[in-house]
């Protein structure tokens, strides 16, 4: 059985990931579960912090002009996609984590960071505490309505889960999971999807390329 791969992340990442899958000769189902949008935020005084933590490229994408005031802070980023977005915004990326937000915070602490600023989504997992002195939401991720026909089209697919929130949302909207295999970016994302799927696999590290590799291995 040559399963299609369902891409559930928001745009513009959805079409980029789907194109990468199609470029490897596989069929992609494009079904964003969420849409992101900017929200108003006040730019804090960069002098009050010694680092900037970014866990999603969406924070860079939606922060807008206010990001320029933070360009002097060294950036700790989760994943190469986030790091690349930060570099394009002329931020100084000093470390790229490959094991999630908590591990990145530990890396920053080991490097001597004591008062980090985290630009985040309104819906997030990392909160202030420890070396994270402040969390400022700069974007929101809102659930999209999904038609019954779109849900039915997921039957027999490998579904890419790129966040815990996406895992929970997929579990919420899919009544019959028995034919769908879940490929998750992390153990937390897999756990959020719950049980009852045809199979569950976790990528070797939390990067889109590794997740696609995992999904393709599950397709046949």
Mind explaining what this structure looks like?
The protein is of the alpha/beta class and 220 residues long. It has 2 domains: 5-33 and 144-219, Rossmann fold; 36-141, Rossmann fold (3-Layer(aba) Sandwich), CATH 3.40.50. The protein is built from 8 helices and 11 strands. The strands form 2 sheets. It has a 6-stranded mixed sheet, sandwiched between helices. Helix 7 (187-193) links the parallel strand 10 (181-184) and strand 11 (199-202). Helix 2 (57-63) runs parallel beside helix 3 and helix 6 (164-173) packs parallel to helix 7. The longest helix has 12 residues, at 208-219. The N and C termini lie close together (5 Å).
Q: Number of helix segments?
A: 8
Which structural class do you get from the secondary structure elements? alpha/beta
Termini separation comes to 5 Å
| SSE succession | EHEEEHEHEHEEHEHEHEH
Nearest-integer average pLDDT: 92
**Inertia-based shape:** elongated
Question: Order of strands side by side in the largest beta sheet?
Answer: 3-8-7-4-5-6
Rounded to the nearest angstrom, the radius of gyration is 18 Å
Number of strands: 11
Low-pLDDT stretches are none
As for the CATH topology of the largest domain, it is Rossmann fold
What's the architecture of the largest domain in CATH terms? Answer: 3-Layer(aba) Sandwich
Domain Tetrapyrrole biosynthesis uroporphyrinogen III synthase: 18-212
GO biological process, one term: tetrapyrrole biosynthetic process
GO molecular function: uroporphyrinogen-III synthase activity
Protein name: Uroporphyrinogen-III synthase
């Amino acid at each position: 059985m040559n399963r299609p791969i369902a891409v559930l992340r928001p745009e513009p990442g959805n079409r980029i990931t789907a194109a990468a899958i199609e470029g490897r000769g596989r069929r992609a189902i494009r079904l964003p579960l969420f849409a992101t949008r900017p929200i108003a935020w006040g730019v804090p005084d960069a002098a009050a912090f010694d680092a900037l933590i970014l866990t999603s490229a969406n924070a860079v994408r939606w922060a807008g002009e206010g990001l320029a005031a933070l360009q002097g802070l060294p950036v700790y980023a989760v994943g190469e996609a986030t790091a690349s977005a930060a570099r394009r915004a002329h931020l100084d990326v000093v470390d790229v984590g490959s094991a999630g937000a908590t591990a990145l915070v530990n890396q920053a602490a080991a490097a001597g960071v004591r008062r980090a600023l985290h630009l985040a989504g309104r819906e997030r997992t990392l909160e202030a505490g420890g070396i994270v002195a402040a969390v400022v939401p700069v974007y929101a991720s809102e659930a999209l309505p999904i038609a019954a026909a779109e849900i039915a089209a997921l039957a027999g697919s490998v579904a890419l889960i790129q966040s815990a929130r996406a895992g929970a949302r997929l579990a919420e909207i899919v009544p019959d999971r028995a034919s769908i295999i879940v490929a998750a970016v992390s153990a937390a994302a897999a756990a959020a999807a719950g049980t009852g799927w045809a199979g569950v696999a976790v990528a070797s590290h939390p990067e889109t390329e590794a997740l696609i590799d995992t999904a393709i291995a599950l397709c046949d």
